[in-house]
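Predict the 3D structure for this chain.
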Amino acid sequence: MKIVITANGTTLDAPVSPIFGRCPTYLLVDTETMQVEILPNPALTAGGGAGVQAAQFIVEKGAQAVVAGNVGPNAFNVFQAANIPVYQFNAGTVLQAVEAYKAGQLLPTGQATGRSHVGMGQGLGRRGRG
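Done. Predicted structure below.
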């Protein structure tokens, strides 16, 4: 099975990112072979709609499940429409997330786990914010 995990890095030892839409990298992991495909997030710097754009990208890449710290409601709706379950994993490495998934320790969330627009701003001096 191919699962996508949000990552703050490009290896299995990278920490799982706490956000979905604006995480820097997705790792597409084949849970049977442990082969990893590195997917830089094309929506990372999007002015708006990053969650939806990123979710559509992940669907197009053929992911069969998503593991992330949090997934906002718009991205969650894209995954729900594509019948791709979302699993929450809040602390640890990508490898630990894969192992937890394979061991059946993660349950599908059934709903968004983050608010809309989480990750916006990121201290980049956005207009009207100082």
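The helical segments are 50-60, 73-81, 94-102.
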